[in-house]
Amino acid sequence: MFKKFDPSEQVSGQAQLKSSATRALRAAVCTQMPLFEPYVDDVVSKKARIIQIRLHNYFQVLCDDTGRVLFLQDREGRLYPALRLVHEYPFMLPTVQVDRGAIRHVLRGADIMCPGLTSAGGSMPPDLAAGQVVAVMAEGKARALAVGKTLLSCAQVRDTNHGVAIENVHVLGDEIWKRERWNASV
């Protein structure tokens, strides 16, 4: 989604979150990523200064006061952790694994197709529901290569075995990844 993203043209504005909005962000992180709850203070402390950068594609980038990207948020309020954060806390999201043949397509920004998850090298948790945020791992690799949203449940993926299973939101090498720090001067 952010493979051809140009921040100079697609940023519509930025502002510092109020303390009440920061508390709401902390609560949303704890609700949407329950395994990450013990570590939420390390990333979004109670007194954290969070910068919200609004984009034209209905996403918001949430950065800390140093400009480090923490989360992406869609218009439905769903939070997608930045890939650097997923690498730091690999247990924060449920993981799916794609086979070796899908790696280059995923790295180019393509959505994850059902056959890439159901083949011999792919796997996904059996209790995975549609609409969940997941970390996408690759067969034989130790770190996540993408963060996405499931469009189908695990049972639906296994039954249909064709079509798009996961919408690719943030991938290694996209513009969010390349910008390690955003200009967060508010």
Automatic annotation (TrEMBL):
InterPro entries: MCT-1/Tma20 (IPR016437), Pre-PUA (IPR041366), PUA (IPR002478), PUA-like_sf (IPR015947), Uncharacterised_CHP00451 (IPR004521). SUPFAM superfamilies: PUA domain-like (SSF88697). The keyword Cytoplasm applies. The keyword Cytoplasm applies. Keywords: Cytoplasm. GO terms for cellular component: cytoplasm. One of its GO terms (biological process) is formation of translation preinitiation complex. Gene3D superfamilies: 3.10.400.20. Residues 94-173 form the PUA domain. It is found in: Cytoplasm. One of its GO terms (molecular function) is RNA binding. PANTHER family: MALIGNANT T-CELL-AMPLIFIED SEQUENCE 1 (PTHR22798:SF0), MCT-1 PROTEIN (PTHR22798). NCBIfam families: unchar_dom_2 (TIGR00451). This is Malignant T-cell-amplified sequence 1. It comes from Cyanidiococcus yangmingshanensis.
